[in-house]
Amino acid sequence: MELMVNRERLMGRMMEMAQLGALPNGGVKRLAASDEDKLGRDLFVKWCAELGFSVHIDEMGSIFARKEGTRPDLPAVMAGSHLDSQPSGGKYDGVLGVLAALEVVQVIKENNIEHERTIYIVSWTNEEGARFAPAMVASGVFGGAFTLEYGLSRTDAAGLKLGEELKRIGYKGTLPADYGRRMKYLKAKQSENGGFSSYKAYVELHIEQGPILESARETVGVVTGVQGIRWYDIEIVGSETHAGPSPMNMRNDPVRKLGDLIPEIYALAKAAGADARATIGELHAFPGSRNTVPGNVRFTVDLRHPDDKSLESMHNMLTRLCERIGADCNEIWYSPPVRFDFGCVEALAKSCKKRGFPSRKMVSGAGHDAVYVSKVIPTAMIFIPCRDGISHNEAEHAEPDDIVNGATVLLDAVCDLANAEI
Amino acid sequence: MELMVNRERLMGRMMEMAQLGALPNGGVKRLAASDEDKLGRDLFVKWCAELGFSVHIDEMGSIFARKEGTRPDLPAVMAGSHLDSQPSGGKYDGVLGVLAALEVVQVIKENNIEHERTIYIVSWTNEEGARFAPAMVASGVFGGAFTLEYGLSRTDAAGLKLGEELKRIGYKGTLPADYGRRMKYLKAKQSENGGFSSYKAYVELHIEQGPILESARETVGVVTGVQGIRWYDIEIVGSETHAGPSPMNMRNDPVRKLGDLIPEIYALAKAAGADARATIGELHAFPGSRNTVPGNVRFTVDLRHPDDKSLESMHNMLTRLCERIGADCNEIWYSPPVRFDFGCVEALAKSCKKRGFPSRKMVSGAGHDAVYVSKVIPTAMIFIPCRDGISHNEAEHAEPDDIVNGATVLLDAVCDLANAEI
């Protein structure tokens, strides 16, 4: 008999969690280290404690609930996501990954499934970055992208520090938050904790926050990596002129150059294949008077590709286009593509196949805690569809069938990984 | 011997006038009906009075200085422009046309040139529209575009009415300001004013405020008319989406449509010939976040053409393009082209030829008092080059040689028109 997750219990917990910081239109506001976040953390910790899992808080306030395996000396398996939300966020973003992991471990416990490796359920602090920028700050400290000091000193709009706010809500723990010090700490405590010293795998279930699965009528996405991202500020400088007297051929009109450039930017994305993305998100002409030829046009470009070589070739094409047209192209951020672990990805794919779920391998277009965690632990992600691809919005919705299927894949993968050879 | 304008006197008066409301960088601030405008008017009136010309102020504050002809019963000739300026305007815009007209009539007087028709030098109130919108309000009342009540009730940013401000500076006259009532009034006074009852011609000398003459190294432009103008607000609505997850072919990206539309807008202007103008002056993408595909793009289009049929065909092409692309195109203003009087234009062209001035016939891209005056009086304009086409700017500059040449053409034309048969 195949293991099944408990739909009512999982959905019940999702809806109970959504009451904390509930907004009028079905969404939630549970900003990191806020009073509402404390309520959400307390409820999660209570559920974990009721099941007899020990709960550990690290220096960044991330919560780790532990179910010991039969071979606690082996590297552990971890699953989870985050409980914080956007200011007007949905009920599923993050919460799904944490509560599905809880459900998975509860099913394992109820069914007395033997697992050699210890299993952790994790909730990372401040994934959203909505109250404290940047996003994914705790998993970033864990994965080595940020120092602990940097993470704790992040301030919100009122000038409050994340570290102080974690203390205030009672979630400033002592477990070392960064992977390096965590490993040393665990090694030093090996005798006390049955020999546990490192992590074998991290799996995160999340809503897709995009339209691909829904439009393909697939229930699960096996996420093999995350797109690389390059951000640009571009300015085309022309000459401000009265809209009447200047003949067209005597103008230096930056909007005309923009009109030449825009189709080329979409063309370079097309040339880089179906996985490429190009977005012009900000676009303004200055000074902005209807009877004046603008003196300059400023816009942003966001280029994404899962393959770094392809992303680089997009970058080169954009740079050349801007040069040719005389635009000033300034790259302001570069986040290389992430490739998830082959073993973790295969564990997920195996479950989809076994369960007969319509699924696909895909690349995430957005950042997740899994990106930073993957720097230090073999990692993969599971996506499920969300309605119209909408997220960071009170209207965010995921179907219970898809939630159950996603959690089922997580269940299979955790069972699989918790017993696998190193 | 050919008549000559007095360069030193004309330039001297230009520079003396530029002291009133002078700005630190060589420009002037002489907003309509301000204290500085009063000083400028007083100086102009003083110069006129010194020459023995009678001065008449109309209900809109416009100033008419009169040199009677030998046949005052014939319709009169009028030349002039305006003395008000932009908040940081130049020394030449408007002032040139008024003071050149004064110079012309002074040369006629000094040389005892016989002229049958009475000659008027005019300075129109509030051409700029900088303090009281709309622009060209007094010539607009004269030409029938606005009612007197509308003109007098224009308010500035402080809520002050143009009519009250004219009263305050002592320039609220009694001469009927609109052409219809003016004609009745003059007819009623025929016996008193030697039979004068109407106007034969209006000629206005102005800087080009564009680059055409300068780049062609021509000294005079004979202005045959003013471009027609059509203004549009255009919106392209798409779907706001995260820049990462959505594949390019599943997006409804309004910037992509904009990129298709912009080159077509320039192409439609090109198709309408060298006199056509198309300007995209305001352009914004919303909500304006670098990692979000914009939900909508809004921009303005300003189409101009001296020929109404061509302008209409540009309008039709723009409308079709917007329809095809699904953009919402809203026309918000339409000002038909103006064609100046053939006889007046020929008088100017004759002078250019006689004097051997490098010149061309051209169409004005900007509005001038002459536009409204031309509705009721046969009208033409003379342009002279201004450096880099720059105007409405303290850096505005015109060369004395060009100023003298422009004034010379005005002189010839006024002499010519003041003796011509009806």
The H/E string of chain A reads: HHEEEHEHHHHEHEEEHEEEEHEEHEHEH
Contiguous helical run count of chain A: 13
- Which percent band covers the strand fraction of chain A? 15-25%
Query: What's the end-to-end separation of chain A, in Å?
Result: 27 Å
Structural class of chain A: alpha+beta
Multimerization state: homodimer
Count interface residues per chain for the largest interface.
Answer: A-B, 61 and 61 residues
Walk me through this protein's architecture.
The structure is a homodimer of 422-residue chains. The first copy, chain A, has 422 residues and is α+β, with helices and mostly antiparallel strands. In chain A, 36% of the residues lie in helices and 22% in strands. Chain A is built from 13 helices and 16 strands. In chain A, strands 1, 2, 3, 4, 5, 6, 14, 15 and 16 form a nine-stranded mixed β-sheet that branches. In chain A, strands 7, 9, 10, 12 and 13 form a five-stranded antiparallel β-sheet that branches. In chain A, strands 8-11 form a two-stranded antiparallel ribbon. In chain A, helix 3 packs across helix 13 and helix 9 runs antiparallel to helix 10. The two termini of chain A are 27 Å apart. The model of chain A has no long low-confidence stretch (mean pLDDT 95).
